[in-house]
């Protein structure tokens, strides 16, 4: 069933290309594609939704990543299969900084803008690789990776009136990964 909504109250920008590249394997084409998909799309979607967000005094939630504010431990990501591409971290860092700019520029219109940086939340196919999952989970104080439902609280806070005085922030849901 298709529903049409009159306006945009909440815009969630959540994008990544899915390309896996190491430093050695990434090409200019890969880099440009990933930056376009993960960073430029946030600009384009927010620009397109701006008139609606302005009229609704809405909320923008940009999904960044822990790798937007910390670097990956190269010892975890051996080989291309589990590689964390440099374009991913660069794009997500851009999303975090762009979030701060948007929070400033859109605040006169009553629009709040925040980022959420999850980590690590591996995709189900990746979770089948026991040795990799063990290495990944051992990198934070909770000694495990995150589950999708563990993002709900932060999303609800940032997208509802419960977070009405929060803007320009990057909330990390990373099991404490960034404290070490």
SS element count, helices: 5
Neighbour order of strands in the largest sheet? 1-2-3-4
- Counting helices, strands and paired strands, the structural category is alpha/beta
How many extended strands? 4
Terminal CA distance? 47 Å
Q: From the alpha carbons, calculate the radius of gyration and give it in angstroms.
A: 17 Å
Portion in helices: 25-40%
Order of helices and strands: EHEHEHHHE
State mean pLDDT (0 to 100 scale).
94
Biggest sheet descriptor: 4 strands, parallel
- Which blocks of ≥5 consecutive residues have pLDDT under 50? none
Detailed description of the structure:
The protein has 180 residues and is an alpha/beta fold. The chain has five helices and four strands; from the N terminus they run βαβαβαααβ. It has a four-stranded parallel β-sheet with strand order 1-2-3-4, sandwiched between helices. Strand 2, helix 2 and strand 3 form a beta-alpha-beta unit. Helix 1 runs parallel beside helix 2. The radius of gyration is 17 Å and the shape is globular.
In short:
The protein is an alpha/beta fold. It has helices at 28-56, 86-106, 124-127, 130-137, 152-159; strands at 10-13, 59-63, 112-118, 170-173. The model has no long low-confidence stretch (mean pLDDT 94).
